[in-house]
Design a protein that fits this description.
The complex is a heterodimer of chains A (414) and B (162).
Chain A: H1 15-20, E1 28-32, E2 44-50, E3 53-60, H2 68-72, H3 81-85, H4 92-107, H5 113-141, H6 145-166, E4 175-176, E5 179-180, H7 188-210, H8 214-220, H9 228-233, H10 239-243, H11 250-253, H12 274-302, H13 319-324, H14 326-338, E6 345-353, E7 356-364, E8 372-376, H15 378-383, H16 386-390, H17 398-405, H18 409-413
Antiparallel strand pairs in A: 1-2, 2-3, 4-5, 6-7, 7-8
Chain B: H1 6-15, E1 20-24, E2 31-34, H2 39-48, E3 56-64, E4 72-80, E5 85-93, E6 99-101, H3 110-121, E7 124-126
Parallel strand pairs in B: 2-5, 6-7
Antiparallel strand pairs in B: 1-2, 3-4, 4-5
Classes of the chains: A mainly alpha (414), B alpha/beta (162).
Chain lengths: 414, 162
Amino acid sequence: MAEPHLLTERSPETAEDDFERDLHTEHQVLNMGPSHPATHGTVKFLIELDGETIVAIEVQVGYLHRGFEKECEGGTWYQAIPYTDRLNYNSAILANLGFCMGVEKLLGLEVPERCQWLRVMAGELSRIGDHLTRCGAACLELQAMTPFLYGIEARELNWDLQEILCGARVTSNYVRIGGVKHDAPTTFPATCREFIGKIRQLLVDFDKVVTSNRIFVDRMKGTGILSREDCVRYAVTGPLLRAAGVPHDLRKAEPYLVYDEIDFDVPIGSVGDNYDRYLVCVEEMHQSLRIVEQCLARLNRLGPGPVNTLDPRVRWPAKERVFNRMEELIQQFKSVTEGPRVPAGEAYFALESANGELGFYLVSDGSAVPVKVRCRPPSLINLAPLPIMLKGLLLADLIPTFDMVNMIGGECDR
Amino acid sequence: MKDHGFASLRLLLAELPGSVLETHAQHGDATAVVAPGELLAVMRFLRDGPELAFDMLSDVTAVDLLPREPRFEVVYHLYSLPKNQRLRIKARVAEDACEVESLVELWPSANWLEREVYDLYGIRFRNHPDLRRLLLYEGFEGHPLRKDYPKERRQPLVGPRN
């Protein structure tokens, strides 16, 4: 049996303190997790409580550590892409995209315009799915089942769209180095427009049930506050930083792909509490739907075209040439068995994922196997200041705060 | 066109030329390799200089360059919110003196990130307030991201701890 120990050292109380305190309680340490019905995500909290008030928290992560970085160092650059799917089950495409664009940076590759719009569109669909889960699950864990179902219905529609686009719902494996797996099917734009309307309606319904609900507001407002300064000191990014009033979004700050041609707004909060985070996420979903619509319109205007770069270092030759010509056959054989060789060097590429700055720091020695694949996980970095957010609050405030931080175990623990 | 931190690099070279061992800007990422002993001074200068204002330490990681000497590189990615600039700082660490100065006093975000590097690479951070494993558990033997740690290696079974 492990011995319980307190996380903080208590100062010896004086007699005066004794008079002023109306109730004596011994501090106790509560173990919560690693698997707990009120937290989505495998994480353990050691919580030191004074009655119901949180005195200190120790967060223990790592329960889902699978050696992502070690695995990536054992295969070719292409073989790492499916692993990136597993970082965040809500927004796999964004993780695909971050990794592939990092490799493209090392290779100095440009992808065709149609591919860039497809990538933006797929990425924004992912983001919507992620925020829907975050907001829906937050309601569920605050004992509101109905709004969760609205959220999940919208997420199902969103996953149906991703299925039409990529052939898979969750682990999409859609993005390739130098392109995407394939163009959107011809049925996609019409279905997508139809579903966007439905998702918008569900968001409106969700809003009506939740946003001004007394219980929801009471649990969310004023809890889990992280000030602007603390956000910066802890390198917190994404909706948490924006809820604290910093209009920082990598899609605007360092526009990648075609974000500089897209019209969208970056919502910010004022207090930095859970309610602000919720409002920021809801507005970001509306903005993402706007972006998807702009992508559909632009893809329609662009018309059919290549979605992959022609660079032979990373893409396979056309099938009819492989079957009829010696050189292309050899090229295809070598591409498949050896994988692309990436020039020696290092590069860091970061994009705005649903949780914040998702960065990939890649080091190559010029061979077909990476020396280093580092994923900068926003989930882990955003979780670190949780003790600051919760100090002095009630144990029950842990639940909405943890929901709004939206720690995703796969990405946090890698 | 965005300035990718070259201005900061120039400023760093002008102010603390002795601390910077080499620089490069591959793929537009401004990078400086600094002497490990000067790391804290360089980082403080980068954080506090009004022209620089690198207020976010966005990532800490390491690279194992076996068999090269010195074997490890500790890699810091800095971001300046007011200037919208990035800078990469690297410190080289040898295997037999596997230690660099901790940056927790400058940026609290270094706390977990340095624990992760310690956990997976076994690089120690001097003056870190709480240098324990982050992702793996106490009782894990070795540091799995080192190149000489075989992927198939089995670990002893340990019981639950508090």
